[in-house]
Amino acid sequence: MKKTIVLAVAMLVVSGASFAGETPSAKDANVYFINLQDGDTVKSPVKVVFGLSGMGVAPAGTEKENTGHHHLYVDRPPLGEGEDGADEVDYNIPADENHVHFGGGQTETVLDLPLGKHTLQLVLGDKDHIPHNRPVVSEVITITVE
Question: 86-112 pLDDT, tens per residue?
């Protein structure tokens, strides 16, 4: 009985320790901004081009190994530091003005941003809009719209 309990606890610890959803990411996967850098000053509307290496892009709902689709976080804390903290990497990314979905497999967009400073971060989501297990995220960049 004691051995069974220890084994059950060990299984819970291992399964609960995953940091993100169940879909694995490629170990060398990287997502980044192609045309913007931290500190850039731009005019609105702002074209944003997404880069991805080590994995491929596939529309939401597509179950294919080593693929995902882009999400753009606008003016919000980095993934894992939002309202739900680290728990947010286990759930579907919401769809609102701060979480823009590109479930069709799009690799660029144009944003109509107001004047001022704005933060941007790319987050790759799996077929269900959940970050991969080892989340594939860009650095957060700050741009200024004049």
Answer: 678 888 899 999 999 999 999 999 999
CATH architecture of the domain covering 20-145: Sandwich (2.60)
How crowded is the C-beta side of 123, counted as CA atoms within 13 Å?
34
CA 59/CA 22 separation, integer angstroms: 18
**What does pTM read for this prediction?**
0.84
DSSP string, 30-73: EEEESS--TT-EE-SSEEEEEEEESSEE--TT---TTEEEEEEE
> What are the residue boundaries of the structural domains of the chain, listed by start?
20-145
DSSP 137: B
